[in-house]
Amino acid sequence: MSIDEIRRGPRPTKQLCTSHIRNNIEMPTKLLSNAAVKQQESPTLEKLVFDPKGLVNNNNDTATDNKDVNAEFEAAIKQLNILQSNDVTIRNSMDNPRVNTKADTLKYLERSGLPLTKLEQLSFIHVAGTKGKGSTCALTESLLRHNGVHTGFFSSPHIVYTTERIRIDGLPLAKEKFTKQFWKVYKRLQERQEFELDMPAYFKFLTILAFHVFIEERVDVAVLEVGIGGEHDCTNIVRNVRTVGIASLGLEHTELLGNTLPEIAWQKAGIIKPGAHVYTHVSQPECLQVIRQRAQENQAILHEVPPTRHYFQSNQYAQHWDNLNQVVKLNGSLAIHLATDWLSQTSGPLHRDYTLNEAKLEPEILLGLLNAHWPGRCQLVEYRGMRLHLDGAHTMESMAVCTKWFAESISQSSSPRILIFNRTGGSDIRQMLSLVNRACAYDMVCFVPNYATSNPNAPSQVMVRFSPEQRMMRVRDIATQWSQMCTQEKQPDSGQVYSTLTDAFTSIRQRFDTDNGHIEVLITGSIHLLGAAISALNYMDQSQT
Question: Is 494 exposed, middle or buried (0-12, 13-18, 19+ CB in 10 A)?
Answer without folding.
Answer: middle
